[in-house]
Structures are given as structure tokens and as C-alpha cells.
Write a structure and sequence with these properties.
37% helix; Metallo-beta-lactamase, Chain A; alpha/beta; 11 helices; binds zinc ion; 302 residues; globular
């Protein structure tokens, strides 16, 4: 994947003007919320350079406001700019708020291994990254009272165990992070599939008028959550039917799985314009992996 330090600010296309969206190439979108009381960075991007772009942008709003940082989860594309805000010589000291599990993720050996690997792969991008944990953590629900806007932070585990989403009732807006995304939030283990789907359901239940995602165009709208739900429902139905026919998943290689289950990406995915643009990788290998996880979950839970 070609990494970049480029950060561009998206032109407002109809969302509340207090929400500013920064894009790091095609990789990820993050948010800066300017409330009466706080300027809140929702995620810190991939390294100190890209985080600096966020901090610089925040600067002009800070004369009468405090800076706060939120991590939706600990993944590298969301929280590897944290060192600008906490730790030795942090140039923009601010509380970094996240789920308690997010701090634990920073301590995991996988996170260290990912950092090492990516530093080797792209030293110019990740060479300076120093893993920096959140400094204020919660486990249930947290409200940031920004004066004009209240940010309700709540757990939406599944994609990762530490994931949180943010609902802002005053403007009926949900920041879904990676708990919903185009084409689907990536489950990494069979056991997390039910949690991931429960999180999608809890976000759908909010009925937000506007939903913004970290990996989807900002204009895609709330229906993406429902499309994600429909996708996993379709996978479950196809897998259940195949198992009922007596299919033995262990005999089928990944690249033949979708055909054997009669569930290729196009048939599982709602046929909207955005879904047509989904990458080949997500349609094939990624899709096969989700099918495999679903089969594993169904056979283990029987
Ligand atoms: Zn992400």
C-alpha cells in the first residue's frame, strides 16, 4: 500500500459546519470537531507528521477553547499520531480519550510487531512513530460536554475490541469510525463476528440523520450501516444453507469458497453505486475471509 504524509481538508458537502474532515490520501478520514468549549480531534492519523497537520488546523480555534483528543481505536491509521499530544516533549499536550481496552492494545505484542514491520516497509513514514497510549480511558459510556454539542462516546467492539463510536444528539450525527465501513467492517476472528454485528445494530438503532465513517465517502449516508448489516446477514444465510446441505468447509480452498457457498460478493452486497467501486481484494480474498469466519463461528457455536 502506498503510504503518504499528505493530509487534505475536505470541502463541506452538507455535514454540520463544526465538523471538519481530513483525509490522509485514500487511506482514512479523521475528524476535527470545533465546539464552544473544546476542539476535539477524533483520531490522530498515522504518524507525527500527519498528526501535526491536525494540530496546526486546530490551532486557530484554540484561543478560547481547550484541545482534546479521542482515539476511536488503536489501529495504526487512527492512533499513531498520539505522541504529539502526550509523553515526553509532546508539542501539543492534551488528554487522549479512549476505551480502556485501547490502552491494552498499545501494550500488545502484535502492535509492537506491526510497528516494527511497517517501520521496515516504509521508514520515511513510520520511522518516527512512538507508540503512545491514551491518557483518559473509560469502559462504558462517556459524555464530552462541549457546550453546544455533547459527544456520547460508546463501545462498538468487533472490528477491534477497543473500538468506540461517537453520537452527537444535537445534530443527530454519528461518527462510526471503523465500526461500519465500505465495503464492510473487517472482522479479524470468528468469535468477534457476533460483537461486530451487535455494534452495527446498536448504531443503526440510533437512527442518526447523518453518519460519517473513517473508510467511506463522507456523503454515503446512514444506509451504509444497513448495507453492512445486510452483508453479514447474507453471509450467515448462505453459510447456514451450505452447512445444512452437508458442505464440509475444511475441504474447500479460500478461492473456491464463494462459489461453493453460492455467495459471491455481488450477491451478498447491496447493489448501490458505492458498492460497485469496491476493490477487487475486498470482493475476493477479503470476502472469502469473512465467509470463512462466518463458517467457523456457525460450526463452533453449534
Ligand atoms: Zn481504519
Amino acid at each position: 500500500m502506498p503510504y503518504t504524509n499528505q493530509v487534505t481538508w475536505l470541502t463541506n458537502q452538507g455535514w454540520d459546519p463544526r465538523i471538519h474532515i481530513a483525509a490522509n490520501g485514500d487511506l482514512v478520514n479523521v475528524f476535527v470537531l470545533v465546539t464552544e468549549r473544546y476542539v476535539i480531534l477524533i483520531d490522530t492519523l498515522i504518524n507525527p507528521t500527519t498528526a501535526s497537520a491536525l494540530a496546526d488546523f486546530a490551532q486557530s480555534f484554540l484561543s478560547s477553547r481547550q484541545l482534546l483528543v479521542v482515539n476511536t481505536h488503536s489501529d495504526w491509521d487512527h492512533a499513531w499520531g498520539n505522541q504529539l499530544f502526550a509523553g515526553p516533549n509532546a508539542p501539543h499536550p492534551a488528554p487522549i480519550i479512549a476505551h480502556t481496552e485501547c490502552a491494552a492494545q498499545f501494550d500488545s505484542s502484535e502492535t509492537f510487531a506491526t510497528l516494527k514491520q511497517m517501520q521496515q516497509e516504509a521508514p520515511d513514514i513510520f520511522g518516527d512513530v512512538r507508540l503512545t497510549k491514551p491518557t483518559l480511558t473509560f469502559s462504558q459510556h462517556l459524555i464530552i460536554n462541549g457546550g453546544d454539542l455533547n459527544l456520547h462516546l460508546f463501545p462498538t467492539p468487533g472490528h477491534t475490541p477497543d473500538h468506540i463510536a461517537i453520537y452527537i444528539p444535537e445534530i443527530s450525527t454519528l461518527l462510526a469510525g471503523d465500526a461500519a465501513e465500505l465495503p464492510y467492517p473487517f472482522a479479524r476472528a470468528a468469535t468477534t463476528l457476533p460483537t461486530l454485528r451487535a455494534s452495527l445494530a446498536s448504531m443503526a438503532a440510533l437512527n442518526a440523520a447523518a453518519v460519517l465513517y473513517c473508510h467511506a465517502p463522507p456523503t454515503i449516508g446512514p444506509h451504509l450501516i444497513h448495507d453492512n448489516i445486510a452483508y453479514f446477514d447474507a453471509l450467515e444465510a448462505a453459510c447456514r444453507a451450505a452447512l445444512a446441505r452437508g458442505l464440509d468447509p475444511s475441504q474447500i480452498p479460500d478461492q473456491e469458497l464463494a462459489t461453493a457457498l453460492d455467495c459471491d460478493f455481488a450477491s451478498a452486497a447491496p447493489t448501490t453505486g458505492a458498492w460497485a467501486e469496491v476493490s477487487l481484494e475486498s470482493r475476493t480474498a477479503g470476502h472469502a475471509e469473512q465467509l470463512r469466519l462466518m463458517l467457523t463461528w456457525l460450526t463452533q457455536s453449534e
